[in-house]
Design goal:
46% helix; Rossmann fold; 5-stranded parallel sheet; 18 strands; single chain
Length: 468
């Protein structure tokens, strides 16, 4: 069946331009010149897409958007046409549930891309329900049910989404669920940890570069924004972006184009931006570490992922799924959790959230002697003691004695360690685990506490078998 669109605008020239463009895309059109006329048409017809001007003779586009939200329950994708540079109005429309916006004078290529995306969203809805894309986030706690409902709602839009939550709580899984249920599901999902990219490489990583633009640029390289073309770019730990990079990213998001290093031409991009951080972004703005204009641009819609301690009833389900995955990777049958072990897991606060639960179970899987994991195999008492010690005021270390040396005898004992390498790896492993516990499993903060780079920490985690 041919798609049907509703175009709402009181300027005949613009209506003619829009309908001509849509008809060339094999989309039939109805035209309304006022708010009341649009409401009558919506009552009598079933549309696949609506495009409305913000200024109407008897109202505005926000009133029409509100009417559609109330009548159609957000099922009908609505795009608004705003005056050039009127970003505040566009953001207000997105917050109210608009699918997207286009600025005057209308860029026809941008309009065609927007319409194609909206129509794909309509086609995607039934397929998403059939494949259960919302099950990327497991849990039957009420706050998890609310989260999945929020994700299903924001997936119908193409607006930027900011995902807040503690480290390890599942922010990337939430972003993947939004992508999987949206119109861009068949296009790339590109995640990037903003704190893991060296500052000198950041612009090249985001925007790409041309051959010969700097030493080592042996060929053209597309940036992450180009690689995610048509899909979703997930900016994890967005608060770690340097201020100068925040300015460039803001322009790329607003103008929907980038200029690779060494190029004199800008390249159009079509990408949805999702972002997340464990930090309080509003506090970062107030303290001058994050630009307010970028904050309001990426924080059009905010959803919060609950910490694991606020959904302890989900721990048995999560533990079962995690243990089955660990056992499958090892090629063995999954061990059982004793009642005492399960009770210990449910009562533990898990400051590192689901990521820490995964690490705890993987360690227990390695330590257990039989097909049963006991409470003592979890080593939760040791982690709790490390947390309590970390919470105590620490004396200023003496300059002559490094802090890490206080917990060790100061010499290699061959009766306890097979080799010097084993001895040094034990020291390194315990120091890293302690730093991760003290920073609530935030790897960026742990690297800073240890005085090493994030990339170096990732290498050591992998070398020591601590990578999740």
């Amino acid at each position: 069946m041919q798609p049907l669109a509703l175009v709402v605008d009181d300027e005949p020239d613009i209506c003619e331009l829009l309908t001509l463009t849509l008809r060339r895309m094999d989309v039939a059109c109805h035209i309304a010149a006022s708010l009341s006329e649009a409401q009558n048409l919506l009552r009598d017809n079933r549309y696949d897409f609506c495009l409305t001007d913000m200024r109407l003779p008897d109202g505005d586009g926000l009133q029409l958007l509100q009417h559609i939200q109330g009548q159609k329950g957000g099922e009908l994708p609505v795009a608004v046409i705003t005056a050039h540079g009127n970003m505040d109005t566009a953001i207000s429309a997105l917050k109210m549930g608009a699918f997207d916006f286009v600025s005057k004078p209308v860029d026809l290529e941008r309009l065609r891309s927007l319409v194609q995306l909206a129509l794909r969203l309509r086609e995607k809805r039934n397929d998403t329900q059939a494949h259960g894309a919302d099950q990327l986030l497991l849990g039957e706690a009420e706050n998890m049910r609310d989260l999945r409902r929020q994700i299903a709602k924001v997936a119908r839009s193409d607006a930027p989404v900011y995902i807040s939550g503690e480290s390890g709580s599942g922010k990337e899984l939430a972003a993947r669920a939004i992508h999987a249920q949206g119109a861009r599901a068949d296009r790339p999902f590109v995640p990037i940890n903003c704190g893991a990219i060296p500052a000198e490489l950041m612009e090249s990583e985001f925007f790409g570069h041309k051959k010969g633009s700097f030493t080592g640029a042996h060929k053209d390289k597309p940036g992450l924004l180009q690689s995610a073309g048509g899909g979703t770019l997930f900016l994890d730990e967005v608060a770690d972006l340097p201020l100068d990079m925040q300015v460039k990213l803001l322009r790329a998001i607003q103008e929907k184009c980038v200029r690779p290093i060494g190029s004199s031409q800008e390249e159009a991009i079509d990408v949805r931006i999702l972002s997340a951080t464990h930090k309080d972004l509003a506090t970062e703005v107030a303290e001058g570490r994050f630009r307010s204009d970028l904050y309001y641009r990426i924080n059009v819609i905010e959803i919060a992922v609950p910490p694991l301690r606020e959904r302890a009833e989900d721990i048995p389900l999560l533990a079962d799924v995690i243990m089955r995955r660990i056992a499958a990777n090892a090629g063995v049958a999954p061990p059982q959790l004793s009642g005492e072990a399960l009770g210990a897991l449910k009562s533990y606060p898990f400051p590192g959230n689901v990521r820490q639960l995964e690490n705890t179970l993987e360690r227990a899987f390695t330590l257990c002697d039989q097909r049963l994991i006991r409470a003592e195999d979890l080593l939760l008492d040791r982690e709790a003691a490390q947390m309590a010690k970390a919470a105590e005021p620490q004396p200023t270390p003496q300059a002559a004695e490094p802090p890490l040396a206080q917990g060790y005898p100061g010499q290699f004992d061959p009766s306890q360690y097979g080799s010097l390498d084993d001895f040094l790896q034990t020291i390194e492993k315990e120091a890293i685990e302690s730093a991760l516990t003290e920073t609530r499993w935030n790897r960026t903060a742990a690297a800073q506490r240890l005085g090493i780079s994030f990339r170096s920490l990732r290498y050591r985690l992998k070398k020591l078998g601590l990578e999740d």
